[in-house]
């Protein structure tokens, strides 16, 4: 407890025009938050101001981050401003570390008013890297569009912020710290907690840890390889998979969170997690998984480097959902995928007669369905999978879900995947990313594309590539009407749907810190059992050709090809 009450100040500031949060919060280059006067303070104040004062007074908030550069400094500022804005208690992961799914879990468990997560997700870290701030509301999920719009509007007119500049928190010691503030009747409390324990308790109630321990450490146990990519998931992997479930310590690599992620791009795909992919090709390991910077994304690999497409991953989990004890108890309320994700999940939903929802990109849309009791399992093509126990995607949950299926079925990852294709058919799928494209060129290309596909004559048009013909069945700019509250989200991506179910999708991503990213998605369904085991890039080459011809994306963006192919 401080001896003399700490002073609370209200300081003048000026607004910045570029603080509109994207689907995953506000992301910028680190130096923007670090060096531009009050840039960080402005955005944090707008988060607090978006919460009604009556709800804010004496409330509890959760704060955590992925450990990237500037994480601890930003947390000190957030705590100083939380105290000055009437928050009564702030719960923080030790050393400022707490994964995005763990923050969601803790918010829900302690009934906090919300949480602030410091992460730029899978973007690089360090002084020359990226930094981000994300606000999650009381349900544990990303702030809905109405809230992020309010934060943005506040950021355009902000004139002052409240702060308690002399308040300093020891982030390294678990326990409570109390501070007396001037003109406050109750002390302000900061609680430093083990970032793993509460989250691990939830997982113990979802999965059968005894079964998983036998799979990972009994006689004839499988060999696994887990890559935390020097992100926040490292301590969770060590504590849960190694210490509790008995997987050998050397089965987990890159588990120490680093401010710059070891100079790597903490994005779990075949390009950036190439170390794991190459190791898996040796055949030494039966199961592999990689996790991104803040722990919400995952990549699943099988023996000899067998790659599980994220769209297929959520479909396999849906088809084998009762291998997970949690769903044996709760039942299954519904499945959901983001619009650009392949329709593999649709095939499972159709066969099991379970309701399927197709939403825009962004986990908050899943959260609304979960809150209404309509959704149990969901996923996105961008390596995100999760369930209704929290309101975020969850990389480690996905890995444990796959291991639960392996434990029950006693098959390899590849055998489970190929059995799935034989049962439901296969959605060949790929995504091309054109990163850091000029914003004006990207927007102009998308507008011209929309004008083209909106023409009535476009419907029914036939495209011929080689010996194959593709006829347009429908084309639109996807919009979503939330079945819970009727909110309509427009301009969510351009869709060209062909007879037979093949799709071409173009979307501008809203989560990058600078420039624009144009994403091209290709999805094609195949049910012929003799055509299930081809190279996706070969199968999809004709549709890619059509997409490039329609968009002229290389000419319009000045790019010779995509930055990333997944």
Strand content: 15-25%
SS summary, helix count: 20
- Dominant shape: globular
Structural class assignment: alpha/beta
Rg from Cα:
24 Å
Calculate the mean pLDDT score and round it: 95
For CATH, the homologous superfamily of the largest domain is named as Alpha-D-Glucose-1,6-Bisphosphate, subunit A, domain 3
Strand arrangement in the largest pleated sheet: 2-6-5-3-4-9-8
Domain tally: 3
CATH topology of the largest domain: Alpha-D-Glucose-1,6-Bisphosphate, Chain A, domain 3
The separation of the N and C termini measures 53 Å
Low-pLDDT runs of 5+ residues are: none
Q: How is the biggest beta sheet arranged?
A: 7 strands, mixed
**Quantity of strands, as a count:** 27
| CATH level-1 class of the largest domain | Alpha Beta
**CATH-level-2 architecture of the largest domain:** 3-Layer(aba) Sandwich
Please bin the fraction of helical residues: 25-40%
GO molecular function, one term: phosphoglucomutase activity
Subcellular location: Cytoplasm
InterPro entries: A-D-PHexomutase_a/b/a-I, A-D-PHexomutase_a/b/a-I/II/III, A-D-PHexomutase_a/b/a-II, A-D-PHexomutase_a/b/a-III, A-D-PHexomutase_C_sf, A-D-PHexomutase_CS, Alpha-D-phosphohexomutase_SF, PGM
Pfam family, one: PGM1_C_vert_fung
């Amino acid at each position: 407890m401080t001896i003399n009450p700490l002073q609370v100040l209200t300081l003048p500031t000026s607004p910045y025009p570029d603080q509109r949060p994207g689907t995953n919060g506000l992301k910028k280059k680190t130096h923007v938050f670090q060096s531009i006067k009050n840039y960080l303070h402005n955005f944090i104040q707008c988060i607090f101001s978006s919460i009604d004062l009556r709800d804010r007074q004496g409330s509890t908030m959760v704060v955590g981050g992925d450990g990237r550069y500037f994480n601890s400094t930003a947390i000190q500022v957030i705590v100083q401003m939380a105290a000055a804005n009437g928050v009564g208690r702030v719960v923080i992961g030790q050393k400022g570390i707490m994964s995005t799914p763990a923050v969601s879990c803790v918010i829900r468990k302690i009934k906090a008013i919300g949480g602030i997560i410091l992460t730029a997700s899978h973007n690089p870290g360090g002084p020359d890297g990226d930094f981000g701030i994300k606000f999650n509301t009381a349900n544990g999920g990303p702030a809905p569009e109405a809230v992020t719009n309010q934060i943005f509007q506040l950021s355009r007119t902000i004139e002052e912020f409240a702060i308690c500049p002399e308040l300093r928190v020891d982030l390294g010691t678990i326990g409570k710290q109390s501070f007396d503030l001037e003109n406050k009747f109750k002390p302000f409390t900061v609680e430093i907690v083990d970032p793993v324990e509460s989250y691990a308790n939830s997982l113990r109630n979802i999965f059968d840890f005894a079964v998983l321990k036998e799979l990972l450490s009994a006689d004839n146990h499988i060999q696994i390889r887990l890559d935390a990519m020097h992100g926040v998931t490292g301590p969770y992997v060590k504590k849960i998979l190694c210490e509790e479930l008995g997987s050998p310590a050397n089965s987990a690599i890159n588990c120490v969170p680093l401010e710059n992620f070891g100079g790597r791009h903490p994005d779990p795909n075949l390009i950036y997690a190439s170390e794991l992919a190459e190791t898996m090709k040796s055949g030494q390991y039966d199961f592999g998984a990689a996790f991104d910077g803040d722990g919400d994304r995952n990549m699943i690999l099988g023996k000899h480097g067998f790659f599980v497409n994220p769209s297929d991953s959520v479909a396999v989990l849906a088809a084998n959902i009762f291998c997970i004890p949690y769903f044996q108890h709760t039942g299954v309320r519904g499945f959901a995928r983001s619009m650009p994700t392949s329709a593999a999940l649709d095939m499972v939903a159709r066969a099991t007669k379970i309701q399927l929802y197709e939403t825009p990109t962004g986990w908050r849309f899943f959260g609304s369905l979960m809150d209404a009791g309509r959704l149990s399992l969901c996923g996105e093509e961008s390596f995100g999978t999760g369930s209704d126990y929290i309101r975020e995607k969850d990389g480690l949950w996905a890995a444990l879900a796959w291991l639960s299926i392996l434990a029950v079925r006693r098959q390899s990852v590849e055998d489970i995947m190929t059995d799935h294709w034989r049962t439901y058919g296969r959605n060949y799928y790929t995504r091309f990313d054109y990163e850091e494209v000029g914003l004006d060129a990207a927007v102009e290309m998308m507008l011209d594309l929309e004008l083209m596909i909106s023409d009535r004559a476009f419907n029914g048009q036939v495209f011929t590539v080689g010996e194959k013909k593709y006829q347009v069945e429908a084309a639109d700019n996807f919009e979503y009407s939330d079945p819970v509250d009727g909110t309509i989200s427009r301009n969510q991506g351009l869709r060209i749907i062909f007879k037979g179910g093949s799709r071409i999708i173009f979307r501008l991503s809203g989560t990058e810190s600078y420039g624009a990213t144009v994403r091209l998605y290709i999805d094609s369904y195949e049910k012929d059992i003799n055509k299930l085991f081809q190279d996706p890039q070969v199968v999809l080459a004709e549709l890619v050709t059509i997409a490039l011809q329609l968009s002229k994306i290389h000419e319009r963006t000045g790019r010779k090809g995509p930055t990333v192919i997944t």
